[in-house]
Design a protein that fits this description.
The complex is a heterodimer. By secondary structure, chain A is mainly alpha-helical. Chain A has helices spanning about 10-15, 15-25, 35-40, 45-55, and strands at about 60, 75. Classes of the chains: A mainly alpha, B alpha/beta.
Chain lengths: ~80, ~950
């Protein structure tokens, strides 16, 4: 699954770069981290960093409870510009 | 300045010692290297065995420490040295790192953090999520003030002579914030599009990524943001038609909040209110235009005098359109005219005094090097001999010479010669030869420019000099002689030739491109000139010998580069502004750049890098080339995004200045610098705490290789109220874990990693986390693998039993290794002692390594080598742990908390109290003796 994890610093550095793509992918509706990973063609463990970074800074949020598959779904947060 | 006691470290031990001492009446200096006190305890979820909230216990103590009238807390500060003096006291050297935020003004609103463009691992969340370069350490930080992590100037930005914050605009492009990126470049120069095409890009030469696969396309990114902005804000109509042409300030800045009437909040691109001062700028090249831009932004009325028919200087006259389309130069210049800068073309200034008498308060001379040097050889006056400047000016103003089917010899080895040769091909020349003194590898022209010229069909004759130009009524050819050396042994230009080796080339036209000189003869009686006819100035202030006249650009430096000229223009504007305001001219304060960050240190932040290929150049070179259409294709948004995404964030802070713009308290101070202070103290308490065992030193457990293997501290963060995720989730994919394993003694009681000691609290924090997990995830199974459970203190065994009752399983046995399945689950291979030592396997979906403690080497580094004794494990050695706790090998130096060995929180607090009493007693004893 991990297929050679990249260093955290390198993955996190790409957050400002990948953030807009993740929000774009969420425009169609809430998704889990593996679903976003599939949409972006990036490893789920890397997408996890970016999703949680976006969540920390208020760009997305989770749907209240996880699904039957034990995954939370995340949706973009509407923000005032 | 003196204090009774220095406490080093603001964790629970340090705070406890400081508070005890201060309550006893002693004056305490507490030095903490982080931006907040709190240490590791504030990062925990709850404490054992009471399951009290760690934050709820810590924060009152943190606030009490910071606000105590007898404690001075120095955060972001490191003690560099402690030396004992003869009278039993200590001299302390304290280094305060700049935080680049005025701590008194900062309100902790986090606007800077929200606007920041650089993401780095959040060490306060164990690296599970990002923070920004501008950040507040954690939500309960005390003091709750922002800091900016700025390790130095990024090499790209430091290399830019124009002072453009390259890293900043790259970071903004990466984030898709193109308007802000454009605006950032405007803070340095209005010539965004020009530099995006014609800059020689020293930033790319210095780019650290160049040591990996190749540099970022920094110049092309600048072109991208200029093209993007200009597409949205087209060129104003010609002839200054106000209704159609005058560009609004909003159009320039891309920011509706930029309001020139708000004198209380002048952003970098908000023109200041009119100063009532007038400045004449002579010359509309890069230096003059950049200076005019900055002067206008500072509220001065600026008029630019340009001798030629169009403004723009060399970019307008001498750079061929296939490299720099003239509408781009015009659009750049429209940035200035929209600000109200008046440009008078065809206005040659010959008398500076006249400008003074016309009411100008200051004059900037920026006339460049407008005269082409001529060959001093036989035949150089023949018809058919011209200069590259004449050719290129003709190309740019639509009146090029007719070179169709002609044989052209271009003389020179610089970029201008290359431009002339490639232009001659585009004008239809049948054969273009480039003759230069230098060998190809030594040519002043960039290697890629030479390569492109050759690819288009230019034929190079390197290491040749022109002996004479042949012909009677008109040029018929050139006679060359072999050049054996261009410079003498002192490095001075002094070509040497082998006169016996000659060659003749036929030529219909000879184009000379051997240099440019300034046109300053008319100034000889007014200003002091250098022997090479450049204007003599103070290099720091750019003042000439006349007090109201400044000079900048090539007229000062001789032929240089566009960004160098822009940089001088900016500096001159700064100085003129200060002179007009009656302020001193300090050459040191023009910009807020820090020294460049060390590239090795940047690359050393990671052990491995993913290969990210540079973008292809994309130029289509054909021989012979046709027309003067722009050669280099623009970057698409996707290319710009990918190109910028390769940035390594060398300086950490990108200097994009978004924090400066958004801070409502104007608290960001990019010009702040660190300081070093000396203090005298009566005693020292070392409370530097511990470090955690690096889990990747047990590679058989897969930490750093398998995303769902985490450490105990990472799990504590996942369980904390201020956690990095929305719940306890697997870092590998965000799944809610159902079967969680703990591996005890990771890095403790383990001679294979050099640590035979028990870490004393790993069992208990694991049990604490077991209970919290079962509360947070009621369906989760928790299994603990270890040799035994050490629950030795008050209430600990009951706490352990409680976990068992709640459902935690405890397996006696060491885990040999961990492997990963395709779905990210983890298989533990272990010895099951309770089942007779059989080798067993168990699958879990999350593994927590209960890592132990390691000594903090910072403690020993405080003192001269060898003075502070340590034990076998390298913790600070106590003279007698039982009867004299806290006393170290140095009289007057005491150790508090886990700096002396693994301790849980209650033991650390007790120990810190003992150290405080010891320090107080020592202070009194020394006082009594003196």
């Amino acid at each position: 699954m991990s297929n050679g994890m990249r260093e955290r610093r390198e993955v996190i550095r790409e957050e400002p770069w990948m953030g807009p793509r993740i929000l774009e992918a969420l425009a169609a509706g809430p998704r889990t981290v593996p679903e976003l990973a599939a949409a972006l063609g990036r490893p789920a463990n890397e997408v996890m960093f970016w999703v949680m970074g976006l969540r920390k800074y208020g760009y997305l949020t989770e749907i209240r409870e996880p699904g039957d598959d034990a995954f939370y779904r995340y949706r973009a947060v509407e923000r005032e510009v | 300045m003196s204090y009774d006691v220095l406490v080093v470290g603001g964790g629970i031990g340090g705070m406890e010692s400081a508070l005890k001492l201060a309550d006893m009446g002693y004056r305490v200096l507490l030095a903490e290297k982080e931006s907040s006190v709190g240490g590791k305890m504030i990062l925990l979820s709850k404490v054992f065995p009471t399951l009290d909230c760690a934050s709820c216990i810590s924060t009152p103590k943190m606030a009490a420490t910071v606000h105590h009238p007898r404690i001075r807390v120095a955060t972001s500060s490191e003690v560099r040295e402690v030396r004992r003096t003869e009278n039993g006291r200590f001299r302390v050297r304290l280094h305060r790192r700049p935080t680049f935020v005025d701590q008194a003004a900062c309100t902790g609103c986090r606007q800077c953090e929200m606007s920041c463009t650089v993401a780095v691992p959040d060490e306060f969340n164990a690296g599970l999520v990002s923070r920004r370069a501008a950040y507040i350490a954690f939500p309960q930080a005390v003091p709750k003030k922002a800091v900016i992590e700025r390790q130095g100037s990024s090499p790209c930005a430091y290399a830019c002579p124009a002072g453009i914050r390259s890293h900043g605009y790259v970071a903004l492009v990466r984030a898709g914030r193109y308007e802000e990126a454009f605006r950032l470049v405007l803070e340095s120069t209005p010539l965004v599009g020009t530099l995006g095409r014609a800059c020689l890009a020293p930033c790319e030469t210095e780019c650290t990524r160049g040591r990996l696969e190749g540099p970022l396309p920094i110049r092309r990114l600048k072109r991208f943001i200029a093209d993007t902005h200009y597409a949205a804000h087209p060129v104003p109509a010609p002839n200054g038609e106000a209704a159609a042409g005058a560009e609004s300030l909003e159009g320039i800045a891309g920011d509706a909040r930029c309001d020139p009437s708000r004198a209380d909040r002048p952003g970098p691109l908000c023109p200041a209110p009119p100063s009532g001062k007038r400045v004449a700028v002579v010359g509309a090249g890069p230096a003059g235009l950049t200076a005019a831009w900055h002067l206008a932004l500072r509220g001065h009325a600026v008029k630019v005098f340009e001798a030629h028919g169009e403004p723009g200087g060399m970019p307008r006259r001498a750079i061929p359109p296939y490299r720099l389309p003239k509408d781009v130069v015009a659009r750049d210049i429209a940035n200035l005219t929209a600000l109200g800068v008046e440009i008078a073309c065809g206005a040659r200034v010959t008398d500076l005094e006249t400008l003074r008498s016309e009411g100008f308060d200051a004059v900037l001379l920026a006339t460049g090097t407008s005269v082409a040097a001529r060959l001093n050889v036989e035949g150089s006056a023949l018809p058919g001999v011209s200069t590259a400047l004449e050719l290129l000016a003709g190309v740019n103003d639509g009146s090029p010479p007719d070179l169709r089917e002609k044989t052209v010899v271009v003389v020179g080895g610089g970029n201008v010669a290359i431009d002339a040769a490639r232009s001659a091909l585009r004008l239809g020349a049948r054969d273009v030869r480039l003759v230069c003194l230098e060998a190809r590898a030594e040519m002043p022209a960039h290697a890629w420019e030479v390569d492109e010229a050759l690819a288009e069909g230019v034929r190079l004759h390197d290491s040749w000099g022109v002996r004479r130009i042949l012909g009677e009524d008109r040029v018929t050819g050139v006679e060359l002689r072999r050049c054996t050396a261009v410079f003498d042994e002192t490095g001075r230009f002094s070509p040497a030739y082998d006169e016996r080796t000659t060659e003749r080339l036929a030529a219909d036209q000879v184009i000379v491109a051997i240099g440019l000189v300034p046109e300053t003869d008319h100034l000889a009686g007014t200003l002091r000139l250098n022997p090479n006819r450049t204007v003599a100035v103070d290099p720091g202030t750019l003042e000439t010998s006349l007090p109201y006249v400044f000079a900048a650009g090539d007229v000062v430096s001789g032929p240089s580069t566009i960004p160098a000229a822009c940089g001088q223009g900016r500096r001159a504007a700064w100085m003129i502004d200060r002179q007009l305001r009656g302020e001193s001219l300090d050459p040191e304060v023009v910009d807020d750049r820090l020294p460049p960050v060390d590239k090795d240190a940047v690359l050393g932040r990671q052990k491995r890098y993913r290969r990210l290929e540079p973008l292809p150049e994309g130029k289509r070179l054909i021989s012979p080339p046709r027309g003067f259409g722009e050669l280099e294709p623009p970057l698409t948004a996707d290319e710009a995004w990918r190109g910028a995404g390769r940035c390594l964030d060398c300086g950490v802070c990108s200097e994009c200045h978004q924090c400066v713009r958004v801070c409502p308290a104007k608290a960001v101070t990019m010009d702040a610098r660190g300081s070093e202070d000396e203090f005298e103290v009566g005693a020292v308490v070392v409370a530097t705490g511990f470090t955690l065992f690096p889990a990747d030193l047990k590679p058989q457990y897969g930490y750093g290789r398998f995303p769902n293997v985490i450490t105990g501290m990472e799990m504590d963060r996942l369980l904390a109220p201020t956690r990095p995720y929305n719940s306890v989730l697997r870092p590998g994919d965000g799944k809610v874990p159902e079967r969680i394993a703990y591996i005890l003694c990771t890095g403790s009681r383990d001679r294979t990693v050099g640590n035979p000691l028990c870490s004393r609290f790993c069992c208990m924090y694991s049990i604490k986390q077991n209970q919290l997990i079962m509360g947070a995830l009621p369906l989760a199974d928790v299994t603990v693998y270890g040799m035994d459970i050490r629950a030795f203190s008050k209430g600990y065994d009951e706490f352990y039993e409680q976990a068992r009752v709640m459902g935690a399983s405890f397996v006696k046995g060491r885990v040999a290794r961990v492997t990963e399945t395709d779905n990210g689950n983890l298989v533990l291979h272990y010895e099951d002692v309770d089942r007779g030592g059989v080798l067993a396997k168990a699958e879990h979906d999350l593994v927590v390594l209960a890592v132990g403690v390691a000594p903090n080497p910072a403690a020993r580094a405080l003192f001269p080598a060898g003075e502070l004794a340590v034990d076998d494990a390298a913790f600070v050695l106590e003279a007698d742990e039982d009867l004299d706790p806290g006393r170290t090998s140095i009289e007057g130096v005491f150790v508090a908390g886990a700096a002396s060995g693994a301790k849980d929180i209650p033991d650390s607090i007790l120990h810190a109290g003992a150290a405080a009493i010891q320090a107080a007693a020592y202070v009194e004893r020394v006082r009594g003796a003196t």
